[in-house]
Design brief:
9 helices, six-stranded mixed β-sheet, 45% helix, alpha/beta
Length: 329
């Protein structure tokens, strides 16, 4: 009897989640359609007698913490938009990670920085590849090969998938969805970074503020911060609008990843131990501690083509439920 109830409960929970995801996709999809209409109207006009590129797709950046449901959202949005005859392609910041060999070289040349020993942080992506891919998609005049990355290769250290296995996007494309847990993170200026370090070192390193950053040196953290400048210059100006899956506390990332690993283990698939998971997640959390405050206060960098607001925010609770929506900047 207990097994039956458990099964019924799983079905009920699955339906609740399915409905919540459907509502999330609907609301986000409607925002994207409005922004697409704005861009198409803008690009069909003339400026100083010159006709602008009327075929460039809308590029939407999607930021959300690991485990927040970004991949599920993108998958749902692709279906939602295509069902409305809006040609859509999606890929991830993860897809432009450095190759395994390049990551090994980076780790070797930055042996004093634990944050750069493994993929994830700013500096471990091929930003030029991302720029070339987005620029080609914006031209919308020829097929574009979309990069792909397989995290299971090389014993979990990952590697870029061979070019022959990349999916090809065929024009015309109306919407590009580009997602990533750190996509949109902005570099702190000198004053902001000094304030951040003050918080990190406050009370002899026992402050609860920025607690995950306390184990790293100022120089370790400075390198990650400085690496973001390249993303700001080469990727973000190509993005027209943003969807921000906001969490109030980055510590929830560990909990969400633990749930994912437990689900993998329950089905007999390879998963991380608690110790491996803690080591993995704590390498990412300093980036959240550096970036989230500025995102909330200053917003995202974008192309600037569209009228404000250019960001749709969904506020997530500890169970990934959307508790509020708003528009920002």
């Amino acid at each position: 009897m207990t097994v039956v109830l458990s099964s019924l409960e799983r079905v009920r929970r699955s339906k609740v989640i399915e409905q919540a995801v459907s509502n999330r996709v609907q609301r986000t999809g409607d925002f994207i359609i409005r922004k697409l209409a704005q861009k198409q109207k803008l690009l069909s006009t003339t400026s100083n007698g010159q006709v602008l590129n009327s075929v460039a797709p809308l590029v939407v950046g999607i930021n959300g913490a690991q485990g927040s449901g970004k991949t599920t959202l993108v998958r749902g949005l692709v279906e939602f938009l295509r069902a409305r005859n809006i040609a859509t392609v999606g890929f991830s910041l993860d897809d432009i990670y450095l190759t395994h060999r390049e990551q090994q070289e980076l780790a070797e040349t930055h042996r004093d920085n634990p944050l750069l020993q493994f993929r994830g942080q700013a500096g471990t992506h091929d930003v030029e590849l991302g720029h070339r891919t987005l620029t080609a998609l914006l031209r919308n005049d020829s097929p574009v090969d979309i990069p792909a990355y397989d995290k299971s290769l090389n014993g979990g250290y990952g590697d870029r998938v061979p070019l022959a296995e990349w999916q090809t996007s065929t024009p015309p494309i109306d919407v590009v969805l580009f997602e990533g847990w750190s996509l949109g993170f902005r570099a702190l200026d000198d004053r902001e970074f000094a304030h951040f370090i003050e918080q990190v070192r406050r009370s002899g390193g026992v402050s609860v503020l920025c607690k995950h950053s306390q184990k790293y040196s100022d120089q370790n953290l400075r390198e990650i911060n400085e690496n973001l400048v390249k993303y700001e210059g080469m990727l973000y100006p190509l993005i027209d609008a943003w969807v921000y899956m906001r969490v109030a506390d980055a510590d929830v990332v560990y909990r969400w990843r633990k749930e994912q690993e437990d689900e993998l283990a329950a089905t007999g698939r390879p998963s991380l131990s608690d110790k491996q998971l803690e080591d993995f997640v704590t390498r990412f959390l300093p980036a959240y501690e550096m970036a989230l405050g500025k995102l909330d206060n200053r917003g995202f960098i974008s192309s600037g083509l569209l009228p404000a607001p250019d960001t749709l925010r969904m506020h997530l609770d500890l169970e990934r439920n959307v508790v509020a929506w708003d528009h920002k900047f």
